[in-house]
Amino acid sequence: AAARDQVQVAGSSTVLPYASIVAEAFGENFDFPTPVVESGGSSAGLKKFCQGVGEEQSDIANSSRKIRDAEIEACAANGVTDIIEVRIGYDGIVFASQLDGPAYTSFTQADIFNALAPKVVVNGELVDNPYTKWNEFNPDLPDAEILAFIPGTKHGTREVFEEKVIAVGCEATGALEAMIAGGMSEDDAEDACLAVRADGRSVDIDGDYTETLASIDANANAIGVFGLAFYENNTDKLKVATMAGVEPSTETISSGEYPVSRPLYFYVKKAHIGVIPGLKEYTEFFISDEIAGPDGPLAEYGLVSDPELAATQAMVANEETMQ
Amino acid sequence: MKDNMEGRKLVDQMDVKFQTRDVQVYYGDTHAIKDVNVDILDKTVTAFIGPSGCGKSTFLRSLNRMNDTIPIARVEGKILLDGEDIYDPKVDPVQLRAKVGMVFQKPNPFPKSIYDNIAYGPRIHGLARNKAELDDIVEHSLRRGALWDEVKDRLQEPGTGLSGGQQQRLCIARAVATEPEVLLMDEPCSALDPIATAQVEELIDELKQNFSVVIVTHSMQQAARVSQKTAFFHLGNLVEYGDTDQIFTNPVDPRTESYITGRIG
Amino acid sequence: MKDNMEGRKLVDQMDVKFQTRDVQVYYGDTHAIKDVNVDILDKTVTAFIGPSGCGKSTFLRSLNRMNDTIPIARVEGKILLDGEDIYDPKVDPVQLRAKVGMVFQKPNPFPKSIYDNIAYGPRIHGLARNKAELDDIVEHSLRRGALWDEVKDRLQEPGTGLSGGQQQRLCIARAVATEPEVLLMDEPCSALDPIATAQVEELIDELKQNFSVVIVTHSMQQAARVSQKTAFFHLGNLVEYGDTDQIFTNPVDPRTESYITGRIG
Amino acid sequence: MSPLWLLILILVLAIAGFAIGRTRAMASVDDHRKLHSRPNYYGTNVAMLAFAPAALLLAVWVVAQPIVINASVSHLIPETSYEDAGALNLIMSDVKRVAEGLDVAVAQGALSAEEARSIRTEFTDVRARLGEVGVALGANVDRDVLRAAQAYRARAATGTWFMTAAVLIVALAGFFFAIREARGDFRARNRVENGILTLLITAASIAILTTLGIVLSLLFNTIEFFRLYPALDFFTRLEWAPSFSGRGGASALGILPLLWGTFYISIVALLVATPIGLFAAIYLSEYASKRVRAFAKPLLEVLAGIPTIVYGLFALLTVGPLLVSVFGNGGLLGVDWMGGGRAVMTAGITMGVMLIPFVSSLSDDIINAVPQAMRDGSYGLGATQSETVRQVVLPAALPGIVGAVLLAASRAIGETMIVVLGAGAAARMSLNPFEAMTTVTAKIVSQLTGDSDFASPEALVAFALGITLFVVTLGLNVLALYIVRKYREQYE
Amino acid sequence: MTDATHGTAEPAEPRRRKASLYASDAHTRRRNAAEKRFRAYGIAAIAIGLFFLLVLLVTIVRNGTPAFTQTFVTIEVALPADKLDKSGNRDIEEMKKVSTFGYAPLVDDALAEALAQAGIETPFANAKDLRQIVSASVAAQVRDAVLADPALVGTSHEFRLLAASRVDGYMKGRVTRESVARDKNISAEHLDIVDQMIAAGLVERRFNPGFVFGADASESRPESAGIGVSMLGSFFMMLVVLALALPIGVAASIYLEEFATQNRFTDLIEVNISNLAAVPSIVFGILGLAVFIQFAHLPSSAPIVGGLVLTLMTLPTIIISTRASLKAVPPSIREAALGVGASKMQTVFHHVLPLAMPGILTGTIIGLAQALGETAPLLLIGMVGFIASNAPASFADGFLAPNSAMPAQIYEWAKRADPAYYERAWGGIIILLVFLMVMNIIAIILRRRFERRW
Ligand SMILES: Nc1ncnc2c1ncn2[C@@H]1O[C@H](COP(=O)(O)OP(=O)(O)OP(=O)(O)O)[C@@H](O)[C@H]1O
Ligand SMILES: Nc1ncnc2c1ncn2[C@@H]1O[C@H](COP(=O)(O)OP(=O)(O)OP(=O)(O)O)[C@@H](O)[C@H]1O
Ligand SMILES: [Mg+2]
Ligand SMILES: [Mg+2]
């Protein structure tokens, strides 16, 4: 078999747009061939990545979450030990509704929890969620039927949604306390907090944001969960909701004002650096200021650039691996 | 409508079943039947004889519009059944075929049980009110087809597993079961032994009491035995038609004579 | 190997073509042929007669192993062709069938042109060196099958578009074209008019100069005319086998007599 | 000689053999009619014997040689440098990579053949040299590895040499053997046909191999899954709710709601596709003019070629809202059965449309193949065309039609996109066909392409789902086979 | 109809005797009504099928046709030597050091210059703000042109540049002034400029060959994405599928239907095959990844692997349909051939197979259609994602070099955020369907030739 001459990347479909922008620019500006960026999910990408070291193995795994310990172990078992972790920036997670739909302007995490949790606190008591309209628990919200399209359990976004929205809301509304008071252990209660109602007002979307968008299109009152980049490309159809009064944007997210976001990563196999042509160059190019900086094409597309980019650049330059 | 009136006018004898006027049948460009005019009488057995390939089957099939199923076949002229033009657009070929039954030259049992083969016609025509009646019809028909004794123990076995002659009798029984007014039989005894042949001939005799039977046969003896009228076809033409006795003893056309005495084929 | 030796021992007369010993044929549980022992001679026409459904076709088909194609059929006993057991695993049924040709009871032309129907056998057996030779074979075979005059202008038309009798002759011509040593004919004249029948009988006569012919027929007259040996089957048993003259004039078994005189069927 | 060239060589030999065998057979008799088989069979026999065994040997050799050499070379690695078989394995893959790297380097001229044989880690940075030619190495090359790699190359070269010799010998042996056989009385046809039969059997066993492959590629991960997640829960739990937050066993991964959704949606799809497809087939083959048929049939087949994503969007944007406007709250019927556009019905109907050609086209061919004599027999009894079709033609065509419907059912079970977009992602066990449900297949895809930890039960469950679905459909197929056998009717 | 004109209601009489042929009795009328109903069902079935087809096709065509045209901006771009080739000796290696980031300002300036020449006022102080009018790919386009012909340096050259997707969307009516209000990628001022540029003939919408023949592009520049390369990927995969699935499928069917004696082993194969048809396609992807890539070490993302996986996936379809049509050939045909001394093999290949051909071809058509439109298994063998390879360099490369496939490309596009990709996805579907039709036409013609009744 002839030697492979292009960088092979696999993994998260959330990172894919950014990776493809970089790969394209890389192919245009370097003598190396354009890297191949496969999609298929963080899980599949990391699995491929951890399959082993060698020419037939992939060089980079894109991931919309941090690699897990179990995965690092699995990697090590296959001889993949030296891994460089590169954080490329943050992905903002926003709520948006139809352009002509009601305006959701004063959301808090508690509102979302009240709307979507199976059990909520009403008058200090934990009851089955009785709400059918938003203004039933928050008069500032529109008089509209509750219908939310949230990421399905396959998506990493769901985890962020659960932890940064639902869990926070659970605590804020006092539901967590009520559960513990009702005799649940703390762990169980935290678990129970994360559930969503199953009566059809909360709809899981296993597909992509385009599917959520199509669903929103068909339901005037509905709100959906999107990535910031996706929203910014579809302002002609979507109206974004504010969270705790803050409108999501690359600025508010990078400053931390807007609370719901998650870091995006890619992982590089150190053993391949220096042998796969262009690997190091691609890695450095990805996080260069020109690309990943606040004025680069990635930010333009919707990536919240990492304030600590310089540290990451230094780490890559030194090929520092995870311990 | 006009055709219809004309048709009715033509009926002068009450015992004429089929009248055909200038019938032509084409297969694509082949002219298989030419100018055939024949009156087939009721309560009579008519035999069609003639060398192989002369058009007997073709003509027979045009009497109950079975030629409709051959895309390239085309029938011209007029065929009247009881004075009504069977090619009239108003005529439902289904009803026609219920009246004019047919036994084909090649036995073609359905891939069903023997019982279902026979019961098929009565069922679709609603001839039986209940299962018992249907059983009766099946038994009666198989008996008439001289097959009952051979198959009475295996009525549920497939009809396709019968011997050639048995299949032929099955098809006869199947045709008889629907009680048609006219029965067209294309060489019904070709695969039968003399005894079975005799039984079928008996059946034909019995049928003619009430109905009209047309039979294609290659056996002069059989034609002479069972028919009252005989039509001799040659190369698509109806050469001679008349009383069987007369045809066999004193044919008018030299071709008929040659055929009967075994000189042309 | 042992079978084979034994087989050779059994050959005492040099002109025996087929020897069958205790042949049984079953269709599933049906015992269709029981204990048939018969010696079929070379350069002789043997007629199989018997009532419909008695097993003539079944036995005939077991002579060239056509029964192999019916999954439920099972043949037991020994059938020797020129002293060799044709059911021996070493025997290639294909070669056997090339030697022992067959005309089936129901005409079954290929859905191909008339020419290709005839030419198929010669082609696969490599009987013609070139197109001209093949043309010759086709013409010759069609002539022997008494069909040439009727189809010579339409050789490229499909064989399935022929009349019943024509199809039968086509199948005869097709079988003859491969020049088999033994020809098994299952009611070859059932759909033929007397003249065509006479021509086929002539062909049979001609064939017997060199080959062996076995013919199933329901016509006593035909059996008497063409055959030298006659076998009479009844309910799966070979009731009587002997010289045709003797069978027809002086049958030994009462059943044979009843059948020939038309009393049992 | 490289395997490819060797293959070409024996192919040439086979072609020559064909011509020679043919000629020889013809020359061996005075009249070619005396040949047992047609001359081409003799030629083919020679070609076959010259080619097939040699090619087979070549294939086996190409696969086996690395394994054998691997085993012999691994003895060169001192036992002190690894702890277990796994570690040795790793080292050996390094050896192979170095050996291949040296090959590449030689091929690219970065190293001379002599250098490749003799370089030493003490004097050369092998990793760097190989990196120059683009060969990925995991670590610096140590002395033993390089020595082993060099041995590996040497043995591989010897092996290739032997292979060339052996393959050529076998090819020539077959060639001459068959040439000698090419005589008039030889049963060439039987030999060739046996060869073809072998090919046919091989083709048929590919199905078995595929099955085996599927089972094996799912099995290990399935076992791993059941190590992490109790099998009893998986098979009996009525809830499907994978969780994300690393809460361990808190995920509910019961297959039953998924299986229920699979069958519900498939049945709706079949209820749509079978009657429409069957009636379309009947109309096309029995009633339609040649013209209409020639035009409508391929058009319907386009339905099978439209990418499923289009159907998915069609379900989501058109069928779903339409159904809601009929069955939903404030709909035409004034009932409130349907909450949202995503429902079993939505996906089922859309999938049914996609499956129409599976039923219609295949059935049409089968119905068309029923002999005309069957129809004639029925018409002759005064049956109408529809009676003929229903009672004679369809029963005769039944086995084929069942095959077509089964194929459609299979497709329905295996479909993802329409389910995800039409029926939703939520697993539910309900009888209401207007509720959202999901299928096993959809979940296999989503768990495989999701973001969860690949070593977690949430990701591994995809494999268990796959194998379970496999077993379930196997059972259904056995049942179908049994039923078809029972009702099979054969004409003529 | 007949019954209507002669509709004298006679009592239902089970045995019709001497009734006129012109008048049908009640029973016949009932049967004829059933007949008409039956026929109507047939017509209705076809009508339903064709109706859905029509709806789908109209949707596809309506959504997809805009993808075939694209908005272009035609301007002169000055290529100053001091920026592009500082050393001045036209050394390619040297010139390559200037990246697209270096070229981008040239295009900005050229735009400003062109506007000035056309007398269009811009509200922007900075030429860089004009960049949003043209595609992000233009810098690369100019750079490629310069590197291909270094003599251009120091001159001015006219380029036809792709307009940005927002501008294109404005031309196509997708982007409106209201929607632009909240869009950070373009502003109303840009649209004003574009309006004037149209008037000045600098901007035009024309057929876009790049869409049909080009390669994929990244998320940020939908205007330069094309389906051509993935079409080649599909083409090479279909070659593999056709070359393997058809012969193997037919061979397996022949064995099972004509030669195999019925025993446990053949039952096993039979059940296996129908079961394989029910295996979700993604599982074939798992198999392909394990067997072809990890075990056999074939390259990942390669059409050959995709072809092999799709072959395995298509086989059951072809086998099932082939077997059904072999079964439908009447036994008398086989007997006829065996009777003249044909071997079983000859019987099958000379008579049975040609008669079964229509069904085989139908299976092939449907199987290939399925294979051509399948995405899920490709996901696992690395053919879905951003694989912006160029057209394969050689025939062998077509099988081995990383490539995507049409359905994967469409699937990817459909997921992307920019609505311009949505239109391209539908456009891709049109091309996929055309590809499918072209592929099937031969089979359909062949099938018609083989069709006959006996
Ligand atoms: N395929 C079959 N399956 C089951 N039974 C069969 C099959 N073929 C023939 N039989 C039965 O075997 C017996 C002998 O049949 P065979 O066809 O040999 O009769 P035959 O003597 O040729 O009669 P005919 O003169 O009517 O052709 C009959 O009872 C028949 O029903
Ligand atoms: N389907 C067909 N297509 C074309 N020609 C046909 C078709 N059927 C019959 N013919 C031709 O029409 C002529 C008459 O055929 P027909 O079947 O009526 O003869 P027949 O008198 O019944 O002969 P037989 O006694 O042999 O059955 C023959 O020349 C025949 O070849
Ligand atoms: Mg006839
Ligand atoms: Mg018989």
Automatic annotation (TrEMBL), chains B, C:
The record's keywords, sorted A to Z, are: ATP-binding, Nucleotide-binding, Phosphate transport, Transport
A UniProt-annotated Pfam family? ABC_tran
Name the Gene Ontology molecular function terms of this record: ATP binding
Q: Where is the ABC transporter domain?
A: 18-260
Q: Does the keyword Membrane apply?
A: no
CDD domains (UniProt xref): ABC_PstB_phosphate_transporter
InterPro entries on file? AAA+_ATPase, ABC_transporter-like_ATP-bd, ABC_transporter-like_CS, P-loop_NTPase, PstB-like
Query: Per its record, how is this protein called by name?
Result: Phosphate import ATP-binding protein PstB
- UniProt lists the gene as pstB
UniProtKB/TrEMBL annotation, chain D:
Gene3D superfamilies registered for this protein in UniProt: MetI-like
One Pfam family from the record: DUF3708
Q: What does this protein do?
A: Part of the binding-protein-dependent transport system for phosphate; probably responsible for the translocation of the substrate across the membrane.
Q: Does Transport count among this protein's keywords?
A: yes
The family annotation for this protein states: Belongs to the binding-protein-dependent transport system permease family. CysTW subfamily.
Q: Report membrane topology.
A: Multi-pass membrane protein
- The name this protein carries in UniProt is Phosphate transport system permease protein
- Where is it mostly found? membrane
This protein's record includes keyword Heme: no
Q: What stretches pass through the bilayer?
A: 43-64, 160-179, 199-220, 263-284, 304-327, 339-359, 459-484
Its localization reads: Cell inner membrane; Cell membrane
**Keywords in alphabetical order:** Cell inner membrane, Cell membrane, Membrane, Phosphate transport, Transmembrane, Transmembrane helix, Transport
Q: Which InterPro entries match?
A: MetI-like, MetI-like_sf, Phosphate_PstC, PstC_N
Top-rank taxon: Bacteria
Query: Lineage in the entry?
Result: Bacteria, Pseudomonadati, Pseudomonadota, Alphaproteobacteria, Rhodobacterales
Q: Which residues form the ABC transmembrane type-1 domain?
A: 259-480
Renumbered to this chain, the signal peptide range is none
From TrEMBL, chain E:
Q: Does the keyword Cytoplasm apply?
A: no
Gene label: pstA
* Protein family per UniProt: Belongs to the binding-protein-dependent transport system permease family. CysTW subfamily.
Q: Which InterPro entries match?
A: DUF3333 (IPR024573), MetI-like (IPR000515), MetI-like_sf (IPR035906), Phosphate_PstA (IPR005672)
Q: What does the UniProt keyword field contain?
A: Cell membrane, Membrane, Transmembrane, Transmembrane helix, Transport
The name under which this protein is listed is: Phosphate transport system permease protein PstA
Query: What are the transmembrane regions?
Result: 38-61, 231-256, 276-296, 302-320, 352-373, 425-446
All copies of domain ABC transmembrane type-1, residue ranges: 231-443
Regarding the membrane, this protein is recorded as: Multi-pass membrane protein
